[in-house]
Design a protein that fits this description.
Layout: H1 3-27, H2 33-38, H3 45-56, H4 59-72, H5 74-105, H6 112-119, H7 126-158, H8 162-210, H9 214-222, E1 232-234, E2 241-243, H10 246-253, H11 263-271, H12 278-308, H13 323-332, H14 336-377, H15 383-404, H16 412-436, H17 442-463, H18 475-492, H19 498-509
Antiparallel strand pairs: 1-2
Helix pairs in contact: 1-8, 1-14, 3-8, 3-11, 3-12, 3-14, 4-5, 4-12, 4-14, 5-10, 5-11, 5-12, 5-19, 6-7, 7-8, 7-14, 7-15, 7-16, 7-17, 8-12, 8-14, 8-15, 9-12, 13-14, 14-15, 16-17, 16-18, 17-18
Length: 511
C-alpha cells in the first residue's frame, strides 16, 4: 500500500468514525418507536431536503451516471437526469405537504404501510401486509447492492479483500442506524450530501485542468459524432452515432415516476416539523439535485477527455463507472494535501452509498417490526420492547443483505433499476390517488398496489425481452396499470365511509 493510499484510508476512517459518533449522539433522543422510525417529526427544512435527496442519490450519482456519460455521451445520461430532476420537483410539489398533513390526520401514521392502513381504515390489514411485504422484497436486495458497492470501492482502490471490506462497511452502517434510528440516518444523510457535493465539485475542477481546460474538453466531445446530442447516441465501439428516438427518451425519462413511491423519500416528507417549511425544502432539494446531476454528467465528459489526453487509462464496459475513482487516485499523487482531498472525494462515494443503505434498512426493518410483527401478530408492547424488536429486525435485514452481497460480481445497477420500478409502480399510484381522489377506497388501493408490482415482473421478464416497441422501462407500463386498477376497482366497489371522506376534506382544508 502506497503512502497516498494510507492517507486516503485514514481520511475515510475518520469519516466513518464521524458517522458512528453521530449515530450514538442521536440515539439519546430515541424514546419511542415514533422517534426511532420518524425522528418524532422534528426534522428541519434543510435536513429534510438534503437527507431526502442524499438517501435517493446512491453511488449511482457518483459512479453510474458519470460512467454512462463517459461511454455513450449525453443522450442516455441526459434524459435520465432530466427525468429524475422533474420527478424530484413534482414529488416535492404534489406529495410532500399533503402527505405530511394527511399522515398526521390519519391517526399519526409513522410508516408508509401504516399510512395506507389508516388512510383507508383498512381493519383487515391487507393493505399494510402487502405494502410491508413489497418493501421487504424490493429493499433487501437494494440494500445488498449498497453493501456491494462499498466492498467494491475499497477492494478496487486499496486492494482489500472484497468480502472483508463489504462486511466492515455494513457493520458501520448497521451500527449507527441501529443506535440512532431515523434521526441518525437523516442527520448523517445531511452530512453526506455535503460531502457528495464537495466530491463532485473537486473532481470536476481537477479533471478539467488535467484535460487541458474546458475548451479542450468541449472540442474532444464535439469530435465524437453524436456525443453531445440529446437526439442521437454515441457508439463507443464503432465511433458512430445513431438516432435517439422518442421511445428511448420516454424510457429514460420514466425514471422520474419512481419518486412518487420511494418509501425512504416519502418518510422525510412525513417527518418534517413544520409543513409550511416544505416550500423551502423543495427549493433546496431541487436545486441540489439539478446541480449534482449536471455535474455528474459533466464528469463523464471530462473523464473521456482525460483518457484521450493520456492522463488516465481508457475505460470500457462497467469499468467506466470507476471514472471518479481513477480521477481521485490521480489527484492523490500530488502530495499529502491532495491525498486527503482524494480521501474526502472517495468518502463522498461511500457517503452516497451509505446514505441510501441506512434509509433502506430502516424502511425494511419497520415493515417487519412495526407493520407485520407489531400490528398483525403482537399488540400492546411497551415502547422499550418495540424499540428492541425494531433493532433486532434491522440487524436481521442487514444480515440477509450481507449474505446476498457476498458475490462481488453482482450487478448493482440492475438491482437498483428493478427495485426503483417496483416501488414506483406499487406505491406511486396509491400515494397520488390517496392524496388527490377522495373516491379511492381500500380495494382500489390494494388492486393498484398488487397489479403495479406484478406488472413490473411481467414486463421485465416476459414482455420487454420481445424488443421493438415493447422495449420500455418496466416502471412506465406498470405505473399506468396500477393507476388504472385503482380507479376501476374503486368505482366498482363501495364508496368510502363518511369518516374517511371527512378526514380527506380536513386534510385538504389545511392547504
Amino acid at each position: 500500500m502506497t503512502s497516498a493510499q494510507i492517507i486516503i484510508l485514514c481520511t475515510m476512517i475518520v469519516y466513518l468514525g464521524g458517522m458512528l459518533v453521530t449515530g450514538i449522539w442521536c440515539s439519546r433522543k430515541n424514546k419511542t418507536t415514533d422517534d426511532f422510525y420518524l425522528g418524532g417529526r422534528k426534522l428541519g427544512p434543510f435536513v429534510t431536503a438534503m437527507s431526502a435527496e442524499a438517501s435517493d442519490m446512491s453511488s449511482w450519482l457518483l459512479m453510474g451516471l458519470p460512467g454512462l456519460a463517459y461511454l455513450t455521451g449525453v443522450a442516455d445520461a441526459g434524459w435520465t437526469a432530466i427525468g429524475l430532476a422533474v420527478g424530484t420537483y413534482l414529488n416535492w410539489l404534489l406529495v410532500a405537504k399533503k402527505l405530511r398533513r394527511y399522515s398526521h390526520i390519519a391517526d399519526n401514521a409513522i410508516t408508509i404501510p401504516d399510512y395506507f392502513k389508516k388512510r383507508y381504515h383498512d381493519n383487515s390489514n391487507l393493505l399494510l401486509l402487502f405494502s410491508a411485504l413489497f418493501i421487504i422484497v424490493f429493499f433487501i436486495p437494494y440494500t445488498a447492492s449498497g453493501f456491494a458497492a462499498c466492498g467494491k470501492l475499497f477492494s478496487s482502490l486499496l486492494g482489500v479483500d472484497y468480502t472483508v471490506a463489504m462486511i466492515v462497511a455494513a457493520i458501520i452502517i448497521i451500527t449507527y442506524t441501529t443506535t440512532g434510528g431515523f434521526l441518525a440516518a437523516s442527520t448523517t444523510d445531511f452530512i453526506q450530501s455535503i460531502i457528495m457535493s464537495f466530491a463532485l465539485i473537486i473532481v470536476l475542477a481537477f479533471g478539467i485542468g488535467v484535460a487541458g481546460g474546458i475548451d479542450n474538453v468541449i472540442a474532444n466531445a464535439q469530435s465524437l459524432s453524436g456525443y453531445l446530442s440529446l437526439t442521437h447516441s454515441y457508439d463507443p465501439v464503432t465511433g458512430s452515432e445513431a438516432p435517439y428516438g422518442f421511445l428511448n427518451i420516454i424510457t429514460m425519462f420514466a425514471w422520474g415516476l419512481g419518486y412518487f413511491g420511494m418509501p425512504h423519500i416519502l418518510l422525510r416528507f412525513m417527518a418534517i416539523e413544520d409543513s409550511n417549511k416544505l416550500k423551502l425544502s423543495r427549493r433546496v432539494a431541487t436545486a441540489w439535485v439539478v446541480i449534482s446531476l449536471i455535474a455528474a454528467v459533466c464528469i463523464g465528459i471530462v473523464g473521456l477527455a482525460m483518457s484521450d489526453a493520456g492522463a488516465i487509462d481508457t475505460l470500457t464496459g462497467s469499468a467506466s463507472e470507476t471514472i471518479i475513482v481513477r480521477i481521485a487516485d490521480l489527484l492523490s499523487q500530488n502530495g499529502v494535501l491532495f491525498a486527503i482531498i482524494a480521501g474526502i472525494i472517495l468518502s463522498g462515494i461511500l457517503a452516497s452509498t451509505m446514505s441510501t443503505a441506512d434509509s433502506q434498512l430502516l424502511a425494511s426493518s419497520s415493515a417487519i417490526s412495526r407493520d407485520i410483527v407489531g400490528v398483525i401478530f403482537k399488540k400492546g408492547l411497551s415502547d422499550k420492547a418495540n424499540l428492541i424488536i425494531a433493532r433486532i429486525a434491522l440487524i436481521a435485514v442487514a444480515v440477509i443483505a450481507v449474505f446476498i452481497a457476498r458475490d462481488p460480481s453482482s450487478s448493482v445497477f440492475g438491482i437498483v433499476s428493478f427495485a426503483w420500478a417496483g416501488f414506483g409502480a406499487a406505491f406511486g399510484p396509491v400515494i397520488l390517488l390517496s392524496l388527490y381522489w377522495k373516491r379511492s377506497n381500500r380495494w382500489g388501493a390494494l388492486a393498484g398496489m398488487i397489479s403495479g408490482a406484478v406488472m413490473v415482473f411481467i414486463w421485465k421478464y416476459l414482455i420487454r425481452p420481445m424488443g421493438g416497441l415493447w422495449d420500455v422501462y418496466e416502471l412506465l407500463p406498470a405505473f399506468i396499470v396500477g393507476l388504472i386498477a385503482i380507479i376501476v376497482v374503486s368505482l366498482l366497489t363501495k364508496a368510502p365511509e363518511q369518516q374517511i371522506l371527512d378526514e380527506f376534506e380536513l386534510a385538504m382544508k389545511e392547504d
